[in-house]
Amino acid sequence: MSLPYAGNAPDSIDADQVDPETGRVETDSPARRVRSQPVSQIEPKRRQFLWQDRLPLGEVTLWVGHAGIGKSQAAVWLASQVSQGTLPGELYGHPSPVLYLGSEDSWAYTLAPRFAAAEADLTRVHRLYAETDTGDGVTAESTVSLAVDLDALRDEIAATGARLVVLDALLSTFGSAKLTEQGTVRRYLEPLAQLAQELNIAVIGVAHFRKASDPNPLHMIAGSAEFGQVVRSAIGFAADREAEDGSCVLSLVKTNIAPAGLPSIRYRIDSATVDTADGPTDVGRFVPLGDTDQDVGELLNQESASTEDRAERNDAVAWLRAHLAESGGEAVAGDLFKAAERDGFAKRTIQRARSKAGVTTRKGDKGWLWTYSPTDER
């Protein structure tokens, strides 16, 4: 499929197409016209999720974080769950095929062992790549290109019955496109999103954060700020530098289709040993640890905190410990934030101080409860 696809407005107009007297555009494309449709003719549909409330079907979801944070291991875990039919969501109980493009890791040495460690149904996980005939019966492999391979990708999805497509890394499918030019990302991703909607599949695009810090995860995506503007769904990954178990956090960092108040998920990357024909090999395995009220944006803020920020956080730590001690060691999060605001502390500051203060959280009847015991200080 060439770019732009048929659903886009024209990107540019040549000067010789404009009538100098009327200013109107003269075009030799009789197939193009403007239409309207009564909304009464459009049948409402229920939003479906591949991963309940987190990963929608019919959409492209960005999967973003710093290098080495475990994004690829998490994508392998999710794809493995889909292949087994064990992922909570629309396909639970229905093992389904997956197409996985892995352009940054070796399939033989890294990705295949990772899928084995994740206990995937390996007959349902398909390595995705492009193939070109070079003549004399010889073919050459390359990375799928969104600019030229979209129709072929549609055919492969139909042939395999895949319900999830993972593009790791998403940027590898852009080829030599100039991402700094306005509109480039939109011209590539909107046809892909249209394909996802047409086939009712989920697409994950794995991307990296830039080295520069920013409190908004969508502003940190490497390549172009347009990534965060174009997609409707994004999941971010961040390290929790104050977690004693070395765990990290994943959060929805952009969505207008998931329920409000969805908790983040804490996870860890463990080492797993996989047997191969020439001996055992070790790979990283994604291990979800449960819900958390920590947030990726909050953790990224901690990474970029200045000396003044750290001083403010130390004051917040002292306030938090004192307030909870006076409240019997426990308080509803919402009430605690209101009390903090009255004493001059922003909600974000208190959230950032929680781990350092030795405060733990749990779900209660009235929402999240924050708990502190002086014997638990660390």
Describe the structure.
By secondary structure, this protein is α/β, with parallel strands linked by helices. 27% of the residues lie in helices and 26% in strands. The protein contains nine helices and 16 strands. Helix 2 links the parallel strand 4 and strand 5. Helix 7 packs across helix 9. The radius of gyration is 24 Å and the shape is globular. The N terminus is likely disordered.
Short description:
The protein contains nine helices and 16 strands. It is of the alpha/beta class. Helix 7 (307-326) crosses helix 9.
Task: Please tag this protein with its features.
single chain, 378 residues, alpha/beta, 2 domains, disordered N terminus
Mean pLDDT: 87
Assign the CATH superfamily of the largest domain: P-loop containing nucleotide triphosphate hydrolases
What portion of the residues fall into strands of 2 or more residues?
Answer: 25-35%
If classified by CATH, what would the architecture of the largest domain be?
3-Layer(aba) Sandwich
What is the count of distinct domains? 2
Q: Categorize the overall geometry.
A: globular
Biggest beta sheet summary: 9 strands, mixed
Tally the beta strands: 16
Structural class: alpha/beta
**Spatial order of the strands in the main sheet?**
5-4-8-9-3-10-11-12-13
Q: If helices are DSSP runs of H or I spanning 4 or more residues, what is the number of helices?
A: 9
- The first-level CATH class of the largest domain is given as Alpha Beta
| H and E order | EEEHEHEEEHEHEHEEEEHHEHHEE
Query: How is the CATH topology of the largest domain named?
Result: Rossmann fold
Which bin fits the share of residues in helices?
25-40%
The gyration radius over C-alpha positions equals: 24 Å
